[in-house]
Amino acid sequence: MPHHAPKGLDRLAFGGDYNPEQWPEEVWAEDVALMREAGVTMVSVGIFSWAVLEPEPGRYDFGWLDRIVALLHEAGIRVDLGTPTASPPAWFYRAHPEALPVTREGMRYEFGSRGAICHSSPAYRTAARAVTGQLARRYGAHPAVAMWHVNNEYGVPVSACYCDTCAAAFREWLAGRYGGVEALNDAWGTAFWSQRYGDFAQINPPRATPTVVNPAQELDYQRFAGAQIRANFTAERDLLHELSPGVPVTTNFMTAPSQCESMDYWAFGSEVDLVTNDHYLITDGRRTHVNLALAADLTRGVAGGAPWLLLEHSTSGVSWQPRNPAKAPGEMARNSLGHVARGSEGAMFFQWRASRRGAEKFHSAMLPHGGTDTRVWREVRALGADLAALGEIRGTRTVADAAVVWDWESWWAQRLEWRPTEDHDARERLDSYYEALYDRHLTVDFVPPTADLTAYPLVVVPALYLASEAAGRNLRAYAEGGGTLVVSYFSGIVDEHDGVHPGAYPGVLRDVLGLTVEEFAPLLPGRHVTLTGPDEAELTGDVWTEFVVPHGAEAVWSYADGPAAGRPAITRHRVGAGTAWYVSTRLDTAALDTVLGLAAADASLPERADLPRDVEVVRRRGEDGREFVFAINHTAAEVKVPLDAPGRELLTGDGVDGRLAVPPGAVRVVRTVS
Amino acid sequence: MPHHAPKGLDRLAFGGDYNPEQWPEEVWAEDVALMREAGVTMVSVGIFSWAVLEPEPGRYDFGWLDRIVALLHEAGIRVDLGTPTASPPAWFYRAHPEALPVTREGMRYEFGSRGAICHSSPAYRTAARAVTGQLARRYGAHPAVAMWHVNNEYGVPVSACYCDTCAAAFREWLAGRYGGVEALNDAWGTAFWSQRYGDFAQINPPRATPTVVNPAQELDYQRFAGAQIRANFTAERDLLHELSPGVPVTTNFMTAPSQCESMDYWAFGSEVDLVTNDHYLITDGRRTHVNLALAADLTRGVAGGAPWLLLEHSTSGVSWQPRNPAKAPGEMARNSLGHVARGSEGAMFFQWRASRRGAEKFHSAMLPHGGTDTRVWREVRALGADLAALGEIRGTRTVADAAVVWDWESWWAQRLEWRPTEDHDARERLDSYYEALYDRHLTVDFVPPTADLTAYPLVVVPALYLASEAAGRNLRAYAEGGGTLVVSYFSGIVDEHDGVHPGAYPGVLRDVLGLTVEEFAPLLPGRHVTLTGPDEAELTGDVWTEFVVPHGAEAVWSYADGPAAGRPAITRHRVGAGTAWYVSTRLDTAALDTVLGLAAADASLPERADLPRDVEVVRRRGEDGREFVFAINHTAAEVKVPLDAPGRELLTGDGVDGRLAVPPGAVRVVRTVS
Amino acid sequence: MPHHAPKGLDRLAFGGDYNPEQWPEEVWAEDVALMREAGVTMVSVGIFSWAVLEPEPGRYDFGWLDRIVALLHEAGIRVDLGTPTASPPAWFYRAHPEALPVTREGMRYEFGSRGAICHSSPAYRTAARAVTGQLARRYGAHPAVAMWHVNNEYGVPVSACYCDTCAAAFREWLAGRYGGVEALNDAWGTAFWSQRYGDFAQINPPRATPTVVNPAQELDYQRFAGAQIRANFTAERDLLHELSPGVPVTTNFMTAPSQCESMDYWAFGSEVDLVTNDHYLITDGRRTHVNLALAADLTRGVAGGAPWLLLEHSTSGVSWQPRNPAKAPGEMARNSLGHVARGSEGAMFFQWRASRRGAEKFHSAMLPHGGTDTRVWREVRALGADLAALGEIRGTRTVADAAVVWDWESWWAQRLEWRPTEDHDARERLDSYYEALYDRHLTVDFVPPTADLTAYPLVVVPALYLASEAAGRNLRAYAEGGGTLVVSYFSGIVDEHDGVHPGAYPGVLRDVLGLTVEEFAPLLPGRHVTLTGPDEAELTGDVWTEFVVPHGAEAVWSYADGPAAGRPAITRHRVGAGTAWYVSTRLDTAALDTVLGLAAADASLPERADLPRDVEVVRRRGEDGREFVFAINHTAAEVKVPLDAPGRELLTGDGVDGRLAVPPGAVRVVRTVS
Question: Which residues in C lie closer than 8 A to residue A190 (C-beta atoms)?
Answer without folding.
Answer: 51
